[in-house]
Structure prediction request, 444 residues.
Amino acid sequence: MKLPLRSGLAGLFLLSACQTYTPAPPRLDAYPATAAGRSLTPPASGRWTAADLLAVALADNAQITEAAAKVRTAQATVQVARVPQVATLTLTAEYSDEASHWLYGVGSDIPLDIGARKSGRIGQAELAVLQARYDHAEVVWAVRAALARAVVDRQVADAEIAVAGRAADLRRQRAERLDRRVAVGEDPRSLALTAHADLVAAERRLSDARGRRRQSDAVLAKALGVATPAVADLNVAAPAMADPVWRSLREQAPLTRKDVLRAVVDYDLAESALRTEVARQYPEVRIGPGYTYDHGVQKIPFNLTLVLPPLDLNRAAIAQAQARRTEAGRSLEAVQAAVLAAADQAAASLATARDAEQLARDRDLPIARRAAQGSAATVRAGEGDRVDDLAAQAAVLDVELALLDARRAHRSALLDLEDALRTPFDPAEHALLQENFKRLGAAR
Prediction:
């Protein structure tokens, strides 16, 4: 009877090593309270750079922290995949009224976790980690792109509010002057109606600019993981506007973009699944050593079990795995083609936007200013009309607003090119993103 006692003691020892369950219910009010309480500590210079803002987003953005948690979950799954397959243990007992009353035994069923089945399972788990890392990088890039666009929209909106406010004031003065002249019969009423229509358009432009400013603050706050009031007075340095040398980056993009690398991992997963299906055309081996005490006679049985493949020797599953591998290869080519097309389209849009801004700055604005200066000189000489002078001044501001629109389009096209290449043109941001990706890969 010593064997059952020893088995019982061994079982108690194993149970003592088990972990216990600790409940961790979520608190719905935790994140809103945390986000509302966060504040932004300005850097020593007092002005935020794009890299400063990105560092805050990497630490506090909810989407980024969620993607990082998924990476850690995938890394934990690798440890699960390394654990051998589950074995079974069967205990039997029998009592009879013979001289040796008891029969008891221990039987087992242990799968031989070796070969392609084990390596395929572990390899697929490791590839899932790469997928999670690339997904995390894509989330980080999406947040970075939203952050950069919010900064550009915010700065352009600030400049637009100042210019649109002045334009609305000039349109209001002109409309009031024309109202007085119409009242005394000096001008037809149609001129006053046209002036009021221009005033309405100018006020709408001012209102739209203020709305874009509020919207950019909301997007900026979301990217930084703070409440909107925390970014209201944020002093952000203007991004550099030099057009990059992008052609070498275009050649690298189909090889280094994280969505391309994720498609490569998808292909590797399909390849691993094919190897596993090929291995399954052979029987799976399981062994079953045991011990039996049969009414005074001790026996040591040993079983060998073969789990046979399907009747078609797994040919259908192998064909399906081959089709999936081919599909994964075509998907990789489609992603690379989309990358190249997006880069070319963004570069063409950037060239168009750059030319439009240059035309507005170097041709349209000087012409409007010369016209306004001539109108002002005529008024000073006593030969011009103040109403026409106000119209000329407002026309200059209209061209300045058009220049701001062209500048916004230029910066937006530059961001589109960054998005197509999946790399920031700011070296500080690029280094920060690379360091974050390496740090996440090193974490276990």
The longest strand covers residues 284-294. The CA atoms of residues 159 and 404 lie 8 Å apart. The two ends are 47 Å apart (CA to CA).
